[in-house]
Amino acid sequence: MIANSTIEEAAYRVMEKAAIDIPEDYLSGIKGMIDLEKGDLSAFVLQSMVENWEAATEDRRPMCADTGLPRYYVKVGNEAAAEKGFVGIERALRCATARATHDVPLRPNRVHPLWRTDNNNNVGINAPEIEWSFEPGADWIDITTVHKGGLFGTDYRMLFPGDGIDGIKRFYLDTLVAFGKRGLACQPAIVGVGLGGSKDTCMQLGKQAACLRTVGDRNPDPKITELELELKALGNDIGMGAMGFIGSSMVVDCHIEVGHTHTGGMPMSVHTFCLSSRRATARIHADGTVAYRTDPQWFTPYLRRETVEWQTPAEPLSNSG
């Protein structure tokens, strides 16, 4: 039985780590862009970003003054047991958020949408968001926190099947150009694209693609991989660099996630995970030990399954699936 106190402490620690320590995959991606960037101002900004992250780590302070809207992605092993069940987990996560807001500190960004009142702790009605997924044959709980901006850097469009790949590219480029010109994204960004599903699922898939996959990770479908790489190259060829200056460093990486959708449509969402690529994960094992990492490992084969029944990848799928 995993104790609520263990869950709360792990969630508190990932809140702290996400706010302060840049993930190594994103840091390596930015460093790799510096030598390729030919725009003087963009190259200067990229180098300044690295220096800012180093200072944040050394001083143990948030890497960006705007710590976004902290949220959680929780993957629960099917054999895991937590004290007081899922309600206990939710309470622990809300308590950890309130503590981290005060201690790290995180900026208390959450307010009521109408009255603009706040609890000064990033906790409120439907806040923080918690998304759940499950994993067969596991007895651990993974808690991932993401500090996503929450203002801009996201767009949605209902495309149609006839728009095809060209329509996807057109909306993608329209979105990045608009974001860059209007200052709606802090680039270089990890860009997540959601394709398919219902409208709400499409938005979820795009945000998860941006926030829960590491730089360099590729979709297991080889054709989607090709499109990811093509969109990354296109995004860096529109003439915009770091923070909107002239250059070629708009997109650190592009990730695509898909969901089966209505026959008459092709929903698409585009999300940017800004230069403060804030994510951290804790795996809480059944014995109460905790291991920390920066790769959420959210998109497992089980999560991407498309058959009715589930067999492990080593087992053949039946024709009735």
UniProtKB/TrEMBL annotation:
Pfam families: Fumerase
Top-level lineage group: Bacteria
Entry keyword annotation includes Metal-binding: yes
Keywords per UniProt: 4Fe-4S, Iron, Iron-sulfur, Lyase, Metal-binding
InterPro entries, sorted: Class-I_Fumarase/Tartrate_DH, Fe-S_hydro-lyase_TtdA-typ_cat
Entry annotated with the keyword Repeat: no
Residue ranges of domain Fe-S hydro-lyase tartrate dehydratase alpha-type catalytic in the record: 9-282
GO molecular function, one term: lyase activity
The family this protein is said to belong to: Belongs to the class-I fumarase family.
NCBIfam families referenced in this protein's UniProt entry, alphabetically: ttdA_fumA_fumB (TIGR00722)
Protein name per Swiss-Prot or TrEMBL: Fumarate hydratase
Species lineage: Bacteria, Pseudomonadati, Pseudomonadota, Alphaproteobacteria, Hyphomicrobiales
